[in-house]
Amino acid sequence: MKIDTALLASHYMMVGKFDSHEAFEKKLTQALSLESKVVQFRQKNIELHEYLALVKIAESVCRQFDCLLFLGTSADVFAQTTADGLHLNSQVLYEYDKRPVLDTQLLSVSCHNLDEMQQAEKLGADILLLSPVKATKSHPELSAIGWAQFEQMTAQLKCPVYALGGMQASDLDDAKQAGAQGIAVSSFC
């Protein structure tokens, strides 16, 4: 599905930690009421029924704010939802030889190098996240690519790319100047 980049928000938010369903709904509502975002819901190590219950909350809140919702899960679990798209991390990227979702659904992929980005485009990814642009505490083993390399890599692709890794709100202008759709953050804003 080709996405109109003019309709994409400049912020891609990956849902962080929360204590309860109520806290999750409240935090997500607050974050989306401040500004439009693309939302990625990912939760590891929880039971499927719990995951799907939380997805229903995310779907409802994202619809309320007309925001795109991606799920960082398997294609099988994604098929049980009404979310807008599936998100793949680079660890599973090469497990697929074709697009794992329908053409009417969206696909986003996290990448760390040009080979992964090109593989994501071969699969028909609609959105890419490229990281780490800056050094991060969560992945200290990865070297930051910096804005110049980010710009060089994204210039070779057709789909929109969000800058990920050490991003702060103050990085949005630098990201846009480097050809990014916007910035991605790993928590509620």
Structurally, the number of domains stands at 1
Can you tell me the CATH class?
Alpha Beta
Could you name the ranges where pLDDT drops below 50 across 5 or more consecutive residues? none
Helix percentage: 25-40%
Q: How many helices in DSSP terms? A: 6
Question: What is this entry, summarized?
Answer:
The chain is an alpha/beta fold and 189 residues long.
Your description of this structure?
With 189 residues, the protein is of the alpha/beta class. The protein has a single domain (7-185), classed as Alpha-Beta Barrel (TIM Barrel), CATH 3.20.20.70. Helix content is 31%, strand content 17%. It is built from 6 helices and 8 strands. It has helices at 21-34, 48-64, 75-78, 114-122, 146-154, 172-177, and strands spanning 11-14, 38-41, 69-71, 85-88, 106-111, 127-130, 161-164, 182-185. It has an 8-stranded parallel β-barrel. Strand 5, helix 4 (114-122) and strand 6 form a beta-alpha-beta unit. Helix 1 (21-34) runs parallel beside helix 2 (48-64). The longest helix is centred in the first third of the chain and has 17 residues, at 48-64. The two termini are 28 Å apart.
Index terms:
6 helices, 189 residues, 8-stranded parallel β-barrel, alpha/beta, single chain, TIM Barrel
What is the topological layout?
Elements (H helix, E strand, L loop, with lengths): L10 E4 L6 H14 L3 E4 L6 H17 L4 E3 L3 H4 L6 E4 L17 E6 L2 H9 L4 E4 L15 H9 L6 E4 L7 H6 L4 E4 L4
Parallel strand pairs: 1-2, 1-8, 2-3, 3-4, 4-5, 5-6, 6-7, 7-8
